[in-house]
Request: fold
Amino acid sequence: MSAPAVRLVDVHKAYRRGAQRVPVLAGLSFDIAEGEFLALMGPSGSGKSTLLNLIAGLDRADSGAVIVAGENLGKLPERLLADWRASHVGFIFQFYNLMPVLTAFENVQLPLLLTDLPRRERRAHVEHALALVGLADRMTHFPNELSGGQQQRVAIARALITDPPLIVADEPTGDLDRDSATEVLGMLQRLNRELGKTIIMVTHDQRAADHAHTIMRLEKGVLWSRDQNAAAVPGRAG
Amino acid sequence: MFFLAMVWRNAWRHKLRSALTLVGLVVALLAFGLLLTVVDAWYQGVNASSDKRLVTRHSVSLVFPLPLNYLGKIRAIEGVRATTYENWFGGIYKEPKNFFPQFAVDARTFLQIYPEFRLSDAERDAFLRDRKGAIVGRKTAENYGLKVGDNITLKGTIFPGDWDFVLRGIYTGGRESTDESQFFFHWQYLDEVVRQRQGARRASLVGLYVSEVEDADDIARIAAAIDAQFANSPAETRSETEKAFQLGFVSMSEALVAAIRAVSYLVILIILAVMANTMAMTARERRAEYATLRALGFAPPFLATLIFAESLLLALLGGLLALGLTYPVAALFGQAVSKFIPHFVVSPQTSLLQLAAALAVGLLAALIPAWRAARVNIVAGLRAVA
Reply:
């Protein structure tokens, strides 16, 4: 049996609000298998975004261990953690978070600038990634020249470009109309199925969560439920 | 290349804001350059002075004249090559507003000691031959449309009455710093008329002596020897190098020069505040972008460099534009004030200072925003959606 893509062991996290300490995650422990497509759900303030940030190496737990791809993130110094993120995690945000002064091509190319890839290879990778998300003809467009759905597809291409094993998506369809949302979710499913990416997606939207294999619900910082979504697991659909 | 393109595009994201900041920078750096040039102009007499010339005047004040019979005694001092003498005239040409410096000089020795006042041989001969002859600098001649052969009348203030001259030459400066606004005529003419109008008691007096020495290194000894010669006389002397003499004039207006200098640096401080504000706003607006770049794996120094580069780009553009504008604006300004500031020329040091000020503004303005961007909290930054 292979090691899990993500393992959390008794993870605690709290924020300070003035003099007050507000607990967000209270002793979370679970595994996420490699190649899983997991949807994190829960009401506002339940800790799902905090959990996603910990798994993505954007934030650190107060106690406990967050082990991703065999690396205990709490033990990595800041500099190495940044390098680790660059090579292991692809990010998809609710508001796309593209650089407005860069074209679609340049935005997708950004993570590759941290690698040693020569210019020609970078170009080939970017063109391939943009073709994969159906935007080969929009390479020279700036974000403000693209629709919301197209911008999110550029963000997906950017998340893919370094071929990371893990993709984290924070409300990826939260700012999209239904058609664009369906398109983006379909794309995430393809990444999971065809490229074997482990995907963790935070969402409020049950329809979006229905695209995932597993739906995990958080409530006040603790794991409330973890359900298999038979309809979305290949081979188990009716 | 990619980095530079990103910096360039970032710099022009808010075109109006960047353009206004740039205009502010250009105006401030232009003002800085012009003010420094005004200060330089103040020191023009000092810069134009020779290290081989020695000025001897009354020890109490320039207001008191010295007897003409000191001339032979000064010339006799070892190490003195030549000596000339002159009087400030202070006449009015047509109207009091038409100011230019006028001196009665011993023409032959004056032209020998001051070779930087250049005349053609014909003009020089005509001037030396005519007791009522005068020469004037190119700038004053241009200002008042004076031509060789013109009759010029000055109304005396120190030496009352109308004084008639014939313009025999228009000199040009042998050096860039030579004052081309002065008017010279024969001391002998002045002395003759003063003797007629005011009597012998007011005649044979000179304002100051200027000696040329053989060896510049010997100038302190010669100055001491001259002053010793006239010690305990009714008109004791004070001898100093021409540079020290000119500096004495500048020191009279030292407070004004210091104020101009202070204002010039204040202008830079103001534009620094404006630029820092622009960069702070820029960095604040892009918090989410910086957080995204950090999330993608870019290190804090990259973000700091991004901000420094953008700030330096704007500052450098402003600096170069200001530099390009300073010369034509200074030329126009110089023309407008040529009566009062005869030598208004932007020095290479001033241009370098302008450029250095621009770069300093660029660097300092980016300091705090760059530091903040480098320390951006990724999680909080990602929530700050622009």
